[in-house]
Design a protein that fits this description.
Shape: globular
Number of strands: 0
Number of domains: 1
Helix content: over 70%
Strand content: under 5%
Oligomer: single chain
Order of helices and strands: HHHHHHH
Distance between the termini: 69 Å
Structural class: mainly alpha
Largest sheet: none
Number of helices: 7
């Protein structure tokens, strides 16, 4: 009984420590950048894959959904989670080593010593979320083609319209952060997504 109480106490302390480090504004800023940047990268990669499939004459909606989900999983899990986690942890450990030298003491066993892994995990999770969610959601545009309610041609355009809408939303989000020119930021990002949409129209 006593050991279980100690375990619960240690878990609560660990959560409090995590919260203490994760609410840092610098960490939040890095996580936001990763989320938006990787969301844009993955959604544009998804748009390119859709246009490539369409230009090759692929009319199988299952193939489009598999392409979108496969791309989202591979980019989010491998590149935007594992790679970001390793890189971010390494960077934080460099900072910790520098701090240890200035403090002339080993900081690895202190509360700060736990920060690199916790911060890296936090940033990597937001990075992977941005990379996975938007291509996966855009893939749902092909469900009506499977159900037979819309043609594959319409679903391609609908999916690419989702790409444009996603980019516009990300631009609005950035405009909200800087508290000005929200629509202008949204239009800047949306303009990027119109290119694959125009290509799809030309191919059709």
């Amino acid at each position: 009984m006593e050991s279980s109480r100690r375990l619960r106490r240690r878990i609560r302390l660990s959560l409090l420590e995590a919260k203490r480090f994760l609410i840092d504004e610098d960490v939040k800023s890095v996580a936001r950048r990763m989320f938006v940047t990787n969301a844009v990268d993955s959604i544009l990669a998804y748009a390119g894959a859709i246009v490539g499939n369409y230009s090759s004459g692929n009319l199988n909606p299952y193939s489009y959904i598999a392409t979108g989900l496969g791309l989202a999983l591979s980019i989010s899990l491998l590149s935007n989670f594992l790679a970001v986690f390793f890189v971010e942890e390494a960077e934080r450990r460099v900072e910790l080593s520098s701090l240890s030298r200035h403090m002339m003491r080993d900081m690895n066993k202190s509360l700060l010593g736990k920060a690199p892994r916790l911060v890296a995990l936090y940033v990597a999770m937001w990075s992977a979320l941005g990379a996975f969610s938007f291509p996966a959601l855009s893939s749902l545009a092909f469900v009506p083609a499977i159900l037979g309610s819309l043609s594959i041609h319409v679903c391609v355009v609908l999916s690419l319209a989702c790409v444009v809408a996603t980019l516009f939303s990300l631009g609005l989000y950035l405009g909200k952060l800087i508290k000005k020119h929200r629509i202008a930021w949204g239009l800047r990002f949306a303009a990027i997504g119109t290119i694959p949409l125009l290509i799809a129209f030309l191919i059709r």
